[in-house]
From TrEMBL:
Family membership: Belongs to the GSP F family.
Protein species of origin: Dyella thiooxydans
Subcellular location: Cell inner membrane
Keywords, ordered alphabetically: Cell inner membrane, Cell membrane, Membrane, Transmembrane, Transmembrane helix, Transport
Alphabetized InterPro entries for the sequence: GspF/PilC (IPR003004), T2SS_GspF/T4SS_PilC_CS (IPR001992), T2SS_GspF_dom (IPR018076), T2SS_GspF_sf (IPR042094)
Source taxonomy: Bacteria, Pseudomonadati, Pseudomonadota, Gammaproteobacteria, Lysobacterales
Residue runs in coiled coils: none
Membrane-spanning ranges: 185-212, 238-257, 393-413
GO cellular component annotations of the record: plasma membrane
Protein name: Type II secretion system protein F
Length: 420
């Protein structure tokens, strides 16, 4: 009597690895009516593409390997927004009764981002090979992080994957909305100040020397502000490379220091949280992310200790990330969530109290969602307020930098005109 033998997991993994390396072929074929059809198909070789087309009742005409673009593949980066849209699409299809493999095929065919299309195709083939969705997504930890995979695994275990994916889509859309708000608040003033510095440098390098030569030819005695600007211009002409190098080097050192040094990252994070208006926005954003992420994971059925592991990386703040990890350790030894939150000293009393009510009433996820909605609205209001406050401040800075320089250059001319 023959017995079925289970496939070695390593063999399955090797097969999936080979599939992920499949080449994409563009094909042209005739269907049963003689109508010309065209499309694309990932496969190991052209013969397999032709065989698959014949299996579908088509007569292959041409099968060509897709050439690589001169400057690399388009859509090489998979953005969180792409993942959010994908989650919403597959949740809708699964809720409508479309099988998962077919859902992946439909979504992949509609993808304009080539990299994400290949990822979805590979995940689909992994599922066809017997892997669960969580296992198939694990090959792409950058696009589908630990939090995403934990939620998918919980949804698969509870048999409510479509509901969980819909919740994940909403969650990612909310998180991206908060990020966009914060970027909007910081981008405008940074760009205006950068333009102001660039204009100042151009004036010091090209405009001020012309005035300086005119003043020297006239033999006029220069006021102190004018002399300071001329000295700054001479320094910039002689050492422009040092100034630009210092600015670029400072930015690079700041970014690299934050990535490589935990202490430096803590220092920067705490410094940002103490800033008057921006610090408040960052703090409210971190609390909103914490509450929204924990609410989603808890609602999906992920155990609290395991959920906090994923939540720590979603706060967007090193300070709050470490606080969440400390909370996880406290909860692991039997403490309540609200008590662990209070010990960190980073959460407002209202958040702690609402969490306590949620724990006592058995509606923790609902309370966390209410906290998230409140603080997301606070972030929106704070960003609008910041934009209103920054406009006059930016005008003052522009006036001091550019206007002050122009006035200092015209002071000798006014002085000479007064003596005539």
């Amino acid at each position: 009597m023959a017995t079925a033998t289970a496939k070695n997991p390593r063999d399955l993994g090797a097969q999936r690895a080979q599939v992920s390396q499949a080449t994409v072929y563009d094909w042209v074929a005739l269907d049963k009516r003689g109508k010309r059809m065209k499309g694309e198909m990932p496969a190991k070789n052209a013969s397999l593409v032709k065989a698959e087309l014949r299996r579908q009742g088509m007569n292959p005409q041409t099968v060509k390997e897709r050439g690589k673009p001169l400057f690399g593949a388009t859509g090489s980066t998979v953005k969180p927004r792409d993942v959010a849209i994908f989650s919403r699409q597959i949740a809708t299809m699964m809720a409508s009764g479309v099988p998962m493999v077919q859902s992946f095929e439909i979504i992949a065919d509609g993808q304009k981002n080539v990299r994400f299309k290949n990822i979805l195709t590979d995940v689909k083939q992994g599922i066809e090979g017997g892997a669960s969705l969580n296992e198939a997504l694990a090959k792409y930890p950058i696009q589908f992080d630990e939090l995403y995979r934990n939620l998918v695994r919980a949804g698969e275990s509870a048999g409510v994957l479509d509901t969980v994916l819909d919740t994940v889509a909403t969650y990612k859309e909310r998180m991206e909305g908060i990020k966009a708000k914060i970027k909007k608040a910081l981008f405008y003033p940074v760009m205006v100040l950068a333009v102001a510095l660039l204009v100042s440098m151009i004036m010091l390098l090209f405009v001020v020397p012309v005035f300086a030569q005119t003043f020297r030819d006239a033999g006029a005695e220069l006021p102190a502000p004018t002399q300071i600007v001329i000295n700054a211009s001479e320094f910039m002409k002689a050492y422009w490379w040092l100034v630009i190098g210092s600015i670029v080097g400072g930015v690079v050192a700041l970014v690299m220091g934050k990535r490589r040094s935990v202490k430096f990252a803590h220092f920067l994070d705490r410094l940002m949280l103490k800033l008057p208006v921006i610090g408040n926005i960052l703090r409210q954003s971190a609390i909103a992310r914490f509450a929204r992420t924990l609410g989603v994971t808890f609602k999906a059925g992920v155990p609290l200790v395991e959920a906090l592991d994923a939540v720590a990386g979603a706060t967007g703040s090193v300070v709050y990330s470490d606080a969440v990890k400390a909370m996880r350790d406290d909860i692991a030894v039997g403490h309540q969530l609200q008590l662990a939150m209070r010990q960190t000293g980073l959460f407002p009393n209202m958040v702690v109290q609402m969490t306590a009510i949620g724990e006592e009433s058995g509606a923790l996820d609902s309370m966390l969602f209410k906290v998230a909605e409140f603080y997301e609205e606070e972030v929106n209001n704070a960003v609008d307020t910041l934009s209103t406050l920054l406009e006059p401040l930016i005008m003052v800075i522009l006036g001091v930098l550019v206007g002050g320089m122009v006035i200092s250059l015209y002071l000798p001319i006014f002085k000479l005109a007064a003596t005539v």
